[in-house]
Amino acid sequence: MEPFIFYEEYALAICKTCQFAVVSDELATHLRTRHRHIPPSTRSSIVKAISSIMGIRTNQASLAQLQYPDPSIAPIDHLADLRTDGIRYHRYSYVYCQT
Predict the structure, then answer these.
(1) Using an 8 Å Cβ cutoff, are 95 and 88 in contact?
(2) Considering only CA atoms, which of 1, 29, 6 is closest in space to residue 77?
(3) Distance between CA atoms of 59 and 71, rounded to whole angstroms?
(4) Which of 40, 43, 50, 73 could bond to 69 as cystine, CB 3.0-4.6 Å?
C-alpha cells in the first residue's frame, strides 16, 4: 500500500509522501500525477488494495459525514499542517496556496 496508510478511525487513506488524504475514487489519479515513478502495474495493485478496504471513503461527497477531531487532540500523523493562506476559487472547486 506504500505510499499510503489507512486511518480506520476516519476511514481515509493518507499519502505519507504528499501528506494529505485521498478518497478511493481519486487514488489512481493521485498516483498517476504525483507518483509517476511507481510502475503502472504497481499503482493498479495499490488502488485495488486500498479500494477493497471495507468502509473507506470513496468520494468527495462522503467527506460531508466526516467527524472532525476535537482541536485538543494531537495532529494526525502523516498529514501536513493546516494551511490558512489559500485562495479558494468557487467556480472551479480549487484552492491555491503559494509554496
Answers:
(1) yes
(2) 6
(3) 25
(4) 73
